[in-house]
Amino acid sequence: MSESPYIFDISGTASFEQLVIENSFHKPVLVDFWAEWCAPCKALMPMLAKITEEYRGELLLAKVNCDIEQDIVMRFGIRSLPTVVLFKNGQPVDGFAGAQAESAVREMLKPHVAEPAPLAADPMEAARELFEAGHIGEAEAQLKQLLTEDNEQAAALILYARCLAERGELGEAEAVLNAVKGDEHKQALAAARAQLTFLRQAASLPEPATLKARLAQHNQDDEACYQLAIQQLARQQYEPALQGLLQLFVRNRGYAEGAAHKTLLQVFDLLGNDHPLVTAYRRKLYQAIY
Fold it and tell me: What's the pLDDT tens digit per position in 87-102?
């Protein structure tokens, strides 16, 4: 199995349905039909992986070992190797058979896949862009390289901790944050600690679907409202979380010793004063208080 979140091996028809057909309704999926004995397949595969990684999640790559997945081979009538097929919206839309130059593969993809925005030249800014776009693994790799050069870069340490937290490594993330020195990045440090808090809280709460069902039955359920907001914050769904927290504050500002108010302030720290949601909800909170 590939370590990349964008590249995966197919194991059976159920896997193909989920990882290729279902995924293709959201992102184009390139399917590489290959076999161990096929030398051109082995030459093509690293090039396809490289191209896929460059798209940073806008393109996925599925690998089908034709010696094993005979049912899938027969289903799509694969007669020669390598064969590469591009799927969109559940259907094959393009592809090729045989070895191809990298330029030809890129040309084939152009009508179907949006070109990724270029990353910033500054490595730290590039890592931040990757993180904000949800490409956690790539951001983490970039930050590891930066920290190899200087393991006390506060900004890099803080963002690296946030990557770890997103992967569920909460203890390790906290240890990295504790290693940050100085007060220069106080706001970013507060944001990272707030993220850790929300992820820890969410781990012990009911799933969002359960909480939404409770609220559908009783929309004044303060506990369900608060817990749903925490789950949304852990998933970076900030606007619905802020809306729910504000409604709870207006309805019952004393709930759990002012938990809604405290959490709103934590979210403001997390997003930063310049974020448009913070600007809007600070004003709404002020109006609710006064």
Answer: 999 999 999 999 999 9
